[in-house]
TrEMBL record, chain A:
Belongs to the sodium:solute symporter (SSF) (TC 2.A.21) family. Keywords: Cell membrane, Membrane, Symport, Transmembrane, Transmembrane helix, Transport. PROSITE patterns: NA_SOLUT_SYMP_3. The lineage of its organism: Bacteria, Bacillati, Actinomycetota, Actinomycetes, Streptosporangiales. This is Cation acetate symporter.
Amino acid sequence: MKHETLSTILFVVFVAGTLAITYWASRNTRSAADYYAGGRSFSGVQNGLAIGGDYMSAASFLGIAGIIALSGYDGFLYSIGFLVAWLVALLLVAELMRNSGKYTMADVLAFRMSPRPVRTAAGVSTIVVSIFYLLAQMVGAGALVGLLLGVTSSSGKVWTIIAVGLLMIIYVVFGGMKGTTWVQIVKAVMLMVGAALVTLLVLGKYGFNLSGLLGDAAAQSGKGANFLAPGLKYGTAAQGTWGKIDLISLGLALVLGTAGLPHVLIRFYTVPTARDARKSVLWGIGIIGVFYLLTLVLGFGAAALVGHSNIDKSGNTAAPLLAGEVGRQIFGDVGGTVLLAIIAAVAFATILAVVAGLTLASSSSFAHDLYAHVFKRGEATERQEIVVARVAAFVIGAVAIALSIFAQSLNVAFLVSLAFAVAASGNLPAILYSLFWKRFNTAGAVSAIYGGLISALILVIFSPVVSGAETAMFPDVDFHFLPLSNPGIFSIPIGFLCGYLGTVLSKEYNAAKYAEIEVRSLTGLGAEQAGTH
Amino acid sequence: MTVQHDASVYEQIQSSDQFQELRRRYRSWAFPMTVAFLVWYLLYVVLSGFARGFMGTKLFGNINVALVFGVLQFVSTFLIAWAYSRHAAAKLDPLADELRNEAEGKAQ
């Protein structure tokens, strides 16, 4: 049997299983708290796994292993930013948000502000960030299926994008947060088991001698010891000083972006108490940290055993090819086929779980923030809100499918780091000021979100990732005039500064409501309770 | 279901010594630690950009400074997460529970 057939069978089994979960979840989703927050009934461990499932996207699984396989050490640098970022979430955001919010990021931001402008800004930012992330994932899915299943026709890629989009719509529309969380838990377990298995086989092949593996990887790469040190991908010698500043800019966006990503933030609402939110982040940190250590071995393993000439130029095939190669070397041809098929199926599961989380975050924000609070001024019934959330999930999913088909020939991988930059520049300042600064007000919140969002977007539009470079989104035109690909080093301070200036230039502020959010966030008094069924 | 409390209740709690102590214990741990791990992380990123000779120095076998530095970022992240959970369980949770129970008792 060919690995493509086996991959397809395994993937169909995963889809059947997750659809069964979705059906079960749909029968247990009645209230808005069920739909938006899974009834707040997940345990800390379950939500920790789901955090891992939500966060370990194809970009971080296949992407980081691929960067390491092709450019060596720099891929590891990327993963460290993704991990350290969780400390911001743990120390400053997770518990306080759980205690003071309800369903969306805007619940905390609008807590003591004039609700309509703040919810509009937060809703816009949530949808923009989620769509960027979603596009990168779905376009990646189209390319990945082409590589792994041998589907090379352009209509094959289009159908892949449509299939991924439809499945994610079904998970979210019918399963809500309950179904989506379980899909992420299943995916996280599959991904950890798959990655650990291949890692053990690779290390076993080298007699658990990491230095030997690294030496082989460096020798095979043709770049020698440089392959094991930073500088082959980010801030290369050819890019000069601006390239190095770009690296720092990327690092800032990665470490500060996570705690402002809407699909990450709504995970904290799925548990009964703030203490469970803390526990889930602790589990998430453990799972994600171990996972990135595994990808380090996978990436260098692919460089050593597969060789960079056999890996596609995006690097996405490095991990699956490594699984096939190490399986073949240890267990023969059948073993290689089976392992490659397993890792390819895990990769599809990974994409599906992440896009579902993003669709849920953006449709929840549309229904709860824009529809219920802005259009209906808080007069919508719970039933109306859920109906709108489901319709929004369908519409956002359909828009994402259409945009992905349009963008499939464009290089949109940069949208992941852009999503982190926008989250760090607009959302994070607004969240931190809301939780910790008494004087913060409506004008400040709106200025922080729009200031961070717009400055990040403008900086990227005129950067080499959009035009003027071979690897740009539009390589044939050139209107770039900024040397940086990552806007964070400018847009993050701009976001914080806008939030500060907006606040001090407006006289409004509500001391009583600040007392409420401060007491609620630290003590859990008046926090939303878990649903009782 | 969610119990609504008067804003004045929150202001009373906020001005109490007990709450001020809880707030101090939380902030005096979380804020400096956030600054510390961000500085530690940025040091790593800046060295990766500007001190490549140093980062490429071999320590033993093919293990160089960059790899050890990177793994230390994992170690420090795990340690800080663990230390925070200990701090919160020992110093924050009991005080938060006391304040919440007291306020909920009054509301009934």
